[in-house]
Task: inverse folding
């Protein structure tokens, strides 16, 4: 199997993983803002995410030198290593639930703040509170009649977004018969609400924050589970059996991810939450609008996770946690693609810049802590 053994190679893997893991959420968020059902999007995304892990295991897990302590992927499939396999699968379940939850949190909290909270498990509500207050002020600029009428139209008489394709055009900057709404304006927010799949007007912000903190708790568990799977600190395997190589652990990790989230999303097709319209397997298969972006998101996530784990095996999983600074990338896409923080207050901008600077410092420190690790997997 192929192993990254140099510090520079490990850092390269982690930097590329950081970019990939910060980009795929923007693709899924964009599809939701265009009106595609999140169940359809996540099924597509999870398929290519798992397919990427299979390709990595069958290629990088098989090429190069193998030894009794570092067997190739196929060799390890027949070994008695189920204790660590279950650890890897538990990590996949945690990540799958975390990613699934964030998809429902983005409409309420925003892409950038959701990724900040889930990645750091820190109290960063000050940025969101300021931005939310800014948005409320923008809405108040409209007359009460206009605002109330727009909300009634969105919440009560929301059209089927899959039958109203014209509304998907220019969804980020807004468009209407009266002209183009400025990004970040009150009219832009109303038009976005009218287009998106998950309606948030009239719903409590605490729904989104609760989902976000649940996702953050899941994210806090998946990396330690993967670490235990590959290093067996709890000694769950009998003596003489080599530790799981990173590619075998990643395969089982992605397999459990795919199975669990597929089952959940199929259930959500028929029993949707947050007042989403009901769907079906047949409707999902026919819904090709945006499927390419969802496939691309799954590919980026799969590659990002794989590079994170490969780099972590070489430099240490603590150093590999530098990819948790993915909000640097997500915030960039949130501002550029979605107009988040546009027309906000100086206080919001100051908090946003401070937050990003802290993440940059964290990434620098974690990457600097990386070092060469031995690649022996034996007890």
Result:
């Amino acid at each position: 199997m192929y192993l990254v053994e140099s510090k520079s190679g490990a850092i390269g893997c982690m930097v590329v993983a950081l970019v990939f893991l910060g980009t795929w959420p923007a693709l899924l968020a964009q599809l939701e803002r265009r009106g595609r059902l999140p169940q359809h999007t996540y099924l597509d995304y999870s398929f290519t995410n798992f397919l990427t892990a299979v390709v990595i295991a069958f290629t990088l897990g098989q090429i190069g030198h193998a030894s009794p302590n570092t067997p190739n992927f196929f060799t390890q499939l027949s070994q008695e290593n189920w204790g660590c396999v279950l650890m890897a699968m538990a990590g996949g379940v945690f990540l799958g639930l975390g990613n699934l939850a964030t998809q429902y949190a983005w409409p309420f909290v925003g892409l950038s703040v959701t990724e900040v909270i889930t990645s750091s498990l820190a109290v960063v509500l000050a940025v969101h509170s300021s931005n939310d207050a800014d948005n409320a002020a923008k809405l108040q600029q409209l007359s009460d009649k206009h605002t109330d009428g727009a909300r009634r139209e969105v919440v009560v008489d929301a059209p089927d977004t899959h039958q109203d394709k014209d509304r998907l055009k220019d969804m980020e900057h807004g468009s209407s018969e009266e002209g183009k709404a400025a990004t970040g304006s009150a009219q832009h927010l109303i038009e976005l609400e009218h287009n998106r799949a998950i309606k948030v007007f009239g719903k409590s912000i605490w729904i989104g924050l609760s989902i976000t903190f649940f996702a953050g708790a899941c994210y806090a568990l998946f990396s330690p589970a993967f670490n235990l799977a590959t290093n067996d600190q709890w000694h769950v395997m009998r003596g003489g059996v080599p530790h799981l190589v990173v590619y075998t652990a990643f395969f089982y990790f992605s397999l459990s991810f795919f199975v669990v989230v597929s089952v959940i999303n199929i259930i959500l097709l028929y029993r949707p939450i947050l007042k989403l319209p009901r769907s079906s397997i047949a409707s999902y298969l026919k819904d090709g609008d945006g499927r390419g972006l969802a496939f691309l998101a799954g590919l980026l996530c799969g590659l990002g996770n794989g590079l994170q784990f490969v780099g972590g095996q070489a430099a240490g999983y603590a150093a590999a946690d530098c990819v948790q600074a993915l909000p640097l990338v997500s915030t960039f896409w949130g501002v550029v693609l979605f107009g988040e923080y546009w027309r906000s207050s100086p206080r919001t901008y100051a908090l946003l810049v401070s937050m990003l600077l802290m993440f940059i410092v964290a990434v620098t420190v974690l990457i600097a802590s990386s070092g060469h690790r031995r690649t022996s997997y034996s007890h």
